[in-house]
Design goal:
With 401 residues, the chain is an alpha+beta fold. The protein has three domains: 67 residues, no CATH class; 89 residues; 208 residues, Intergrase catalytic core (hpI Integrase, Chain A). Helices cover 47% and strands 10% of the residues.
Length: 401
């Protein structure tokens, strides 16, 4: 007895208490054989079982056919918007994206991915097509990588929905950003004189159109001095609040930062579960400069109690860079042939303190999780490094016994 129902072939054979079996052939010609389900104790029931199995196969095939026709735009057009279901699900699993990160993904989606790939089906997306497209764009490799990561997140969601079976492997582009240069001891002294008027003269904006108040220049001079004395990021010093300063302990608690949207929130790479907060001791002269500034703003009702603010808000990132370059220019420091932005102050701190602190303490002060990051930020001026090594000269003298 042999009955065919679609691709399935029913036959009868007594084996381990079961009489009805069926087989079919896969695309590669391999024969697969299975027993009919429980309760198939008659030919009629076995045939009904296979008819239902075939019907389920057709339903699944139709579902997969429908899913395979979904385009990138159909699936992703509403992703990375506040309140989107996938963001809520990620948050429930502990993957909470910062608002600026969500905005960045949305920008990549609407600015690059949908215009180029929106009409394509997921099966038509492959690494070669994506890489060739990104290479045509006038973007840094870092930006290309973040666009690819946005696409990978979308494709992971498509895999979860059953649209694709696997996410292609995208090879990242090599980062081509230059490391920052560092400031020498002489340059630091020129930029950060303790004398109030000298500090104002360095950080005052040359402007023929209006007279700027000296307090603005003093604020920026103090701000940059604190930045380089504690190895802070720009967003961290711009978010510095009164309650983060401990005069009696000569230090700062770093637990918040201003993001790209001007909002005060978590530190870089921080999450609610891992805030990445840290404490750092600052030099006495910096502490005195900070106390002097606090005395001038103690009666000022600034934005949320910020130490450094402008027009009642956190200082904008572009404005702080603009002012930093004014200071460098006033001090006669060339920033055009060297890589000197506000972030160079963090490099300078890391480099100078590496000869003074243990690796563990230095990493705790700057907030690095690995020695490799400390190595990355080490940009020594070799003559100054040689001077710093003089303290170990007695040990070197023992080389010859």
């Amino acid at each position: 007895m042999s009955v065919s129902i679609g691709k399935y072939h029913l036959f009868e054979r007594e084996r381990r208490g079961c009489s009805y079996f069926y087989y079919w052939y896969e695309i590669n010609g391999r024969r697969i054989q299975k027993a009919c389900g429980h309760g198939c104790d008659s030919k009629r029931k076995a045939v009904a079982y296979l008819e239902k199995l075939l019907k389920d196969d057709l339903t699944e095939a139709k579902r997969k056919s429908t899913l395979s026709s979904i385009t990138i735009k159909d699936f992703a057009k509403d992703m990375f918007i506040d309140g989107a279901p996938h963001l809520a699900r990620w948050a429930a699993k502990g993957k909470v994206l910062k608002r600026q990160t969500i905005i960045q993904h949305r920008r990549h989606l609407t600015g690059y991915l949908l215009p180029k790939f929106g009409k394509l089906r997921f099966s038509e997306i492959n690494p070669t097509v994506v890489e060739d497209f990104l290479l045509e764009q006038r973007l840094s490799n870092s930006c290309r990588n973040t666009i690819m990561y946005t696409l990978k997140l979308i494709m992971r969601e498509a895999r979860r929905s059953g649209i694709i079976d696997m996410v292609p492997e995208f090879e990242p582009f090599k980062r081509n950003g230059r490391r920052q240069d560092t400031l020498s001891s002489e340059e630091l002294l020129a930029l950060f004189q303790y004398d109030e008027q000298q500090l104002i003269n360095i950080w005052k904006r040359p402007d023929d159109m209006r007279k700027e108040k000296d307090e603005i220049a003093l604020m920026f001079g103090t701000l940059f001095c604190v930045t380089v004395s504690a190895g802070l990021r720009s967003g961290e010093v711009r978010a510095l609040h009164r309650d983060q300063i401990s005069i009696e302990n000569s230090g700062l608690v770093i637990d918040r930062a201003v993001d790209d949207l001007g909002q005060i929130g978590l530190l870089k790479k921080a999450t609610e579960e891992d805030p990445r907060s840290r404490a750092v001791i600052i030099p006495e002269i910096t502490l005195k400069m900070l106390e002097r500034w606090l005395g001038k703003v103690k009666d000022c009702h600034d934005f949320l109690g910020l130490i450094f603010s402008y027009n009642g808000k956190p200082i904008a990132n572009y404005y702080i860079l603009d002012r930093f370059r004014y200071g460098l220019k006033n001090a006669g420091i060339d920033y055009e042939s060297r890589r000197l932005t506000v972030h160079c102050l963090r490099y300078t701190y890391n480099t100078r303190m590496r000869t003074l602190l243990s690796e563990q303490v230095l990493r705790e002060f700057v907030g690095h999780r690995s020695i490799s990051m400390t190595d990355h930020y080490d940009r020594p001026i070799l003559l100054e490094r040689l001077v710093a090594y003089q303290r170990v000269k007695p040990s070197v003298e023992q080389f010859w016994g």
